[in-house]
Protein: palmitoyl-CoA hydrolase
Organism: Sphaeramia orbicularis
Amino acid sequence: MRPDDSNLAGNVHGGIILKMIEEAGCIIGTRHCNVQNGDRCLAALVRVEKTEFLSPMFIGEVAHVTAEITFTSKHSLEVQVKVIGENVLTGAKKLASKAALWYVPCSLKNVEKIMEVPPIKYASAEQEEEGRKRYEAQKMERMETKARIEEAVAPPANPEQHTVGFSQSSLIHLVGPSDCTLHDYVHGGATMKLMDEVAGIVAARHCNTNIVTASVDAINFHRKIKKGCVLTVTGRLTFISNKSMEIEVMVDASSMVEAEMRKYRAVTAFFTYISLDKDNKPLPVPSLKIESEDEQRRFDEGKARYLQNKAKRLSNNQGQQ
Amino acid sequence: MRPDDSNLAGNVHGGIILKMIEEAGCIIGTRHCNVQNGDRCLAALVRVEKTEFLSPMFIGEVAHVTAEITFTSKHSLEVQVKVIGENVLTGAKKLASKAALWYVPCSLKNVEKIMEVPPIKYASAEQEEEGRKRYEAQKMERMETKARIEEAVAPPANPEQHTVGFSQSSLIHLVGPSDCTLHDYVHGGATMKLMDEVAGIVAARHCNTNIVTASVDAINFHRKIKKGCVLTVTGRLTFISNKSMEIEVMVDASSMVEAEMRKYRAVTAFFTYISLDKDNKPLPVPSLKIESEDEQRRFDEGKARYLQNKAKRLSNNQGQQ
Amino acid sequence: MRPDDSNLAGNVHGGIILKMIEEAGCIIGTRHCNVQNGDRCLAALVRVEKTEFLSPMFIGEVAHVTAEITFTSKHSLEVQVKVIGENVLTGAKKLASKAALWYVPCSLKNVEKIMEVPPIKYASAEQEEEGRKRYEAQKMERMETKARIEEAVAPPANPEQHTVGFSQSSLIHLVGPSDCTLHDYVHGGATMKLMDEVAGIVAARHCNTNIVTASVDAINFHRKIKKGCVLTVTGRLTFISNKSMEIEVMVDASSMVEAEMRKYRAVTAFFTYISLDKDNKPLPVPSLKIESEDEQRRFDEGKARYLQNKAKRLSNNQGQQ
């Protein structure tokens, strides 16, 4: 982890970790789909499941990323990835993050053509069955998210502090060659890094403190993004608990050079940030001033997600006992 | 702003700000020229007007870049860009820089073909008239600069301290894929970043202190630079006032692989640097030892530019009262 | 030198210096081979001779890289490169490193076609004769190294501290557009940077201190690496003297998308690291626990290289008196 990977306090950005996770998933997924004959193909990211950042990483640490294919359907595959942080000076290791990603193999000749995925062997029938459940669940959720797309509205001219409009932020990025690989489409990891950057600015503007990514809700990649596109990445606060902020991040893409320059929503996700003091201890977050019915609705939806995640965590902990 | 964007004292390099300004100008200019039918095209930078760096930016701050098209001629357009720096921890904002850039739309099929620019609507006839004056003025100055091209002469073997030869510096850069975009020509912003890097080395060598870019005189892009070229960027001191240094920067390009490897002058500009103490207060600059008639002539020309700029600043201030 | 070029203590990574050296060599070599008519070509790196890092470089310093062609055979050329570090605040300069690189000109139309190298003029017959000796010596050594290729074996599951298995490290890298130039093959410099990164992790894991590259034994580039390949870079300790560690680094490449995904050994080299205290003084290195016959053999071979280098240094010093 290098100086540019981290904020001023030395914490590595969540976006950098997401980018490494995606690179590992892309390599193992692409390799797997090319063991068969037929068109050569590239594994394109379509979804990242909820990802938690369990312990912070710092500049100078070494990140170990391991990936495994855990389920295959006819046209998609699931990769599970673990990131372990190692302090090479003390030898201490810790689990920094784990994630599950879904990929679809696109032909290198024609990026719209989805190839078939060679099946993997499962250790047991149960394992396969659990994978199938995850597959069905994500398929349904991806369709639901696609239906729920809303416009990002520009904030008022002089927003009051601690309102949604005050911290809402947008970043515009021109997709360059180094964002892409092999064919001229943007790496999922490059997009996630930009999303985390915007979410971090929103969180810092609301708190005026050092902030870090705690978790990312499922990220859905609705459409591919081509080289030469302009991305508008917008983040806004949706919900605030006692010690966390939920930020909705939307990525809109549009071609700079097509005569018809319609924007389309390419990616959406919810990022959760926490505020830290100088000793990396969580701080209380200033409450959010709600100013419209839409903001209230989004706040309530965010609260529902927050309570659901909390319940899931508790039941998982009990399951492990 | 990330650690790599700044010097050891935490000041963001002027070149990084110029690069962001140019990216914004390129996006808005390219979009505007592609609303019509005909060949798809890319806005190529031909000139940046005098740019002042009004307040320094630091690592961790957020830069807001906004761009607006303010004049169109048949084959070129003017974009005005503002950069506002925001300290997300305190919420303080300041105007870091503003700039005006001229672009020409080149066809993506044939980079030598200049497309027509769709006209914009002006708020008033005065506004259009003022734009036309700026257009005529820059057109004349670009032609004049092109005529004034001179060779960069290698400095003597053991130059004395505080001479022009002592601080003269060159940087050689092989144009790689990440310097280019869409078609294989170098982004104006990438070139300006290199120019600022060289000017910074010249200034630091003369002063042996922390230095920052104060302003950049009009930058003229005489010729395009292709991927695979080798750039030689040379900077030398021309003039020194009590608290500022003027550095002439020249960019020469040559192909590595063409049989006929003639160098050509691609870009020229004058950068003004100031020297800072530990509290970011300006320091006096050591005076320049002139050793030849050419150096004296360039010094006098620099002095004329300095006095002209000073007079312009004073009359602008009076105009605002 | 920027923050990202260095470790936490501010020392610039050896890999960054190797990358600059290679860029200089590639530019001068490519230029030389294109002065004649015939296919345009690119100088491809095939070998770097033993390189010593004579004095450390730090963030904020300016690196001067100068390159000169010192020998040409029918199909290859030797470039000698010097890196001088300059502290622009004090004006102090020091020789940071010098290196000799061998290049082969590959046609840009067909990368497998090796072009002829235009001969250079030598200052004296002795100079040419010495160059020929270096040429013959490196040719023989390249063939020998190619024959000596061995598999990198995965370390045991729970290796004991200070064993070879404990510090053995691998890095996986997906070759992207910014690693390549002109034709879609990886720059030798990009590969060397990755090799130094892995060697640095191995050294830090063994010592748990701040470590720096002291020297690199000849690096041999056996095969070219194409864009879209996955590189596995593995480093393991071979030999430890009182104050230095020798680390063998192997680069294996494999295509992600070819049906037949055989790995091939692309590059090999030995890196020597030293451990530093807070005042940049060398520290004793913990001794290495040997656990197998292979490890003992590699240790003995490393010791032979170490003693040979020491003898060479001594005789060079005497030669200079």
Observations:
- Chain B has two domains: 3-147, 164-320.
